[in-house]
Specification:
Helices cover about 40% and strands about 15% of the residues. It is of the alpha+beta class and about 600 residues long. It folds into three domains: about 200 residues, Aldehyde ferredoxin oxidoreductase, N-terminal domain (Aldehyde Ferredoxin Oxidoreductase,  A, domain 1, 4-Layer Sandwich), CATH 3.60.9.10; about 170 residues, Aldehyde Ferredoxin Oxidoreductase Protein, subunit A, domain 2 (Orthogonal Bundle); about 180 residues, Aldehyde Ferredoxin Oxidoreductase Protein, subunit A, domain 3 (Orthogonal Bundle), CATH 1.10.599.
Length: about 600
């Protein structure tokens, strides 16, 4: 069932999900992409005509391995293309238990509202008393009204003030929707979504489902990397990235941070006070510390990497303040780290006098707060993202983004496969869809102190590996919807996911069939970008930041002609033309015939 809510007319309708759509797109990202393709065409992302899709997958609402996520999607106000993000939240459980695969939110309310869904009962309620509050206070107040056992998705002042990298927050630290999904909610005057579901989610083969999931939950704690994972989670990556000259430092101008030990996983362990996780997870990754102000802040590698080394901040308890503020205000920590570090470098270059310098804590805190409220000329500039800020200042060569989405925490001067993963991500520069750098480093390790002996390669195998990971990470896990970490961090066999999906649906799903659906989703999302850019699409859209081509670090940098060849190989393997557009033959072969008429005159 799809729940459709129009905030302009206050109409609420329900419709059945077409079974063929689920066969072709499985759910979550696949379902959201199909809805947005069908219904969101040539619109201003911050207008009433944009639609916000909150979509679940078949793994949600059930005791599936780490199956506690939702996908939130819309046309992105940050990039102008398709935007989405997943978020770990109890709302994923409640949405399916309420009987819905997705909520489609249309129109714009005249006054602030929130949506309350309790099984078949759906209400649009006044949010006058919570508009302006932080995400943490919003969720607390809504739980006082509706009970502790509900799922809450909310925005903070950043979303209300249409900061283009505003996100949706849940459970005081879970966030999703990097390309500005929080701003889309804010443009609709939608402060929050509260969901309570009490129904059973149907499973076709209950016996097989119980057998498979019981076995998986037994396997996970026995896997070799489990104990260390439970100590440090994703923050173990910081030491590894620093060692391998991949750590973004001072706006990606350096690859190692001299104070890395003061912000790494071991420092976090000494400060940790508790842990948090998503529903149905037995390898929780949310490590919580007390920050400089004595308040709890949930840390992972991405937010520490971007708000620590990338801004030159050498103290983890100070980084934790910036992280908590971003969560409370409803801003993406990755994009915030990039715009802050961009402003810091611009300050060094004499372009922005009032910006903080690298490592300046108090000024960084002040600017973070101002960005959320668009308070002042600099904050207003940065609130639109690094791409637009750089264009206005003539500093495109130091702007770290792809398609307008800020780069996450991997520096790629010597890693062309990861640069390709950023370039071809479905939403702009994001690591979640193809964290190929671990494989890239593993196949060609960097000897300590011997950078001069390192040889960069641009083999076709790298293009193939990016697509393989996009099928798994950006495809399968985003459609199910489930967390990728049991597989990528602990090595859980992927076959379990196909078995569990088959048991849930009563249909035979193999990894091959799931990956075919993933390729279909990637081609559909790419077609959406092409359509929305009205024929202006070209392969340059899939290039990583210029800095990696122009500036040498340790005497090395990416070579544009070789990257271009790698990109061509990627297109060939995907069945896309030299512009990066799916061919007519590919679209027909992937059962995307409905795309053809929309892209007349563009397709080859």
């Amino acid at each position: 069932m799809i729940l459709r809510v129009n905030l302009s007319t206050r109409s609420i309708t329900k419709e059945q999900v077409d079974e063929r759509t689920l066969d072709d797109f499985i759910g979550a990202r696949g379902l959201a992409a199909k809805i947005i393709w069908d219904e969101v065409k040539d619109v201003d992302p911050l207008s009433a005509d944009n639609k916000l899709v909150v979509a679940a997958g078949p793994f949600n609402g059930l005791r599936t391995p780490s199956g506690g996520k939702l996908v939130i999607a819309a046309k992105s106000p940050l990039t102008g293309g398709y935007g989405d993000g997943n978020i770990g939240t109890m709302a994923s459980v409640h949405l399916r238990k309420a009987g819905y695969m997705a909520i489609v939110i249309e129109g714009t309310s005249e006054k602030p509202v929130y949506l309350y869904v309790e099984d078949d009962h759906v209400s649009i309620l006044s949010a006058e008393g919570i508009w302006g509050l932080s995400t943490f206070d919003t969720e607390r107040k809504l739980k006082e009204v509706h009970g502790d056992h509900v799922g809450v998705l909310s925005i903070g002042p950043a979303g209300e003030n249409l900061v283009r990298f505003a996100v949706v927050i849940s459970q005081e630290g879970r966030s999703g929707g990097r390309p500005g999904m929080g701003a889309v909610m804010g443009s609709k005057k939608l402060k929050a979504i509260v969901v309570k579901g009490t129904k059973d989610v149907q499973v076709k083969d209950k016996r097989a489902f119980e057998e498979y999931t019981r076995e998986v939950y037994k396997i996970i704690p026995k896997l070799p990397a489990y104990d260390f994972w439970m100590r440090q989670g994703t923050l173990a990556t910081l030491e590894w990235a620093n060692k391998n000259r991949a750590l973004p430092t001072r706006n990606f101008s350096q690859v190692k941070f001299e104070y890395a030990r003061s912000v790494d996983g071991y420092s976090m362990e000494a400060m940790k006070v508790t842990k948090r996780g998503c529903p149905n997870c037995n390898m929780i990754c949310g490590n919580v510390v007390l920050d400089m102000e004595g308040k709890e802040s949930e840390l992972d590698y991405e937010n520490v990497g971007m708000l620590g080394p990338n801004t030159g901040m050498p103290s983890l308890n100070r980084v934790a303040v910036l992280n908590r503020l971003a969560d409370e205000l409803g801003m993406d920590t990755i994009s915030l780290g990039v715009v802050l570090s961009f402003a810091m470098e611009a300050h060094e270059k004499g372009k922005i006098k009032e910006a903080p310098g690298f490592g300046e804590y108090e000024k960084s805190v002040e600017l973070t707060k101002k960005i959320a409220y668009r308070d002042g000329e600099l904050a207003n500039l940065l609130a639109d993202g690094v791409k637009k800020a750089a264009e206005q200042l003539g500093l495109e060569n130091i702007a770290m983004h792809v398609k307008g989405l800020e780069v996450s925490a991997y520096n790629c001067y010597i890693y062309p496969a990861m640069a390709l993963a950023y370039g071809t991500s479905a939403i702009g520069a994001h690591h979640k869809e193809a964290w190929v750098i671990a494989w890239e480093i593993g196949t060609s390790p960097l000897e300590e102190g011997a950078v001069s002996k390192y040889t960069m390669t641009y083999s076709s195998e790298k293009a193939s590996k990016v697509i393989e990971q996009q099928r798994i990470r950006g495809g399968m896990f985003e459609m199910l919807t489930a967390c990728r970490l049991p597989w990528v961090e602990l090595g859980l066999d992927l076959d379990w996911y196909a078995k569990i999906l088959s048991a849930i649906t009563g249909k035979e799903w193999t990894l091959t069939r799931i990956f075919e659906a993933a390729d279909r989703v990637y081609s559909l999302i790419r077609s959406y970008w092409v359509r929305e850019f009205k024929g202006k699409w070209d392969r340059y859209m899939d290039y990583p930041p210029e800095r990696w081509f122009e500036q040498e670090v340790d005497g090395m940098k990416l070579e544009k002609d070789k990257y271009d060849q790698l990109l061509s190989e990627y297109y060939k393997l995907r069945g896309w033309d030299e512009r990066g557009i799916p061919t007519t033959e590919t679209l027909k072969g992937q059962k995307l015939d409905f795309v053809l008429n929309e892209l007349k005159g563009v397709l080859s």
